[in-house]
Here is the input.
Amino acid sequence: MDDEAHPAGRRAALTALLVASLVAVVAVTLAPRGSGWSWGSPAVELRWYVTGLGSAATRVQLLGNLGLLTLPAAGAVLRWPSLGRPAVLAGISLAAGTTIELLQWALPLGRVVSPLDAVLNAGGAVAAGLLVGSRRVRDLGGLRVQASSFPQPGPGPGR
Here is the structure.
């Protein structure tokens, strides 16, 4: 199927990708691990990350938190390019990460509630969304979006 000839099909495929990635996020983050919840102090967790980067478990946890919302963010920016603006992307990503943590607190899942996790989730989502949105010209669902609609760095020294 030619995407340019069938923009509705491309939009439907991007919507399906977004929904599937959100279902995966729900499955990973809201699966029960006991009952109740525990607090993840941001200071303690930050120290754990900084001092434990030599540990495979710490790196897996860090990369998992950074990667959790990357597919939904990329899918959303591909589906709705206007979401690729940094402020919009940061707001939506932080709201998504915070929602996950609030649900882990409100539901008896036995999960650790961590504001730092929400920030890491948002950081990875923003990076993915900006990366996807940074292409020069893209044809998405019949819409042509120029890179000039996204902030561009100025010329560096000597350029």
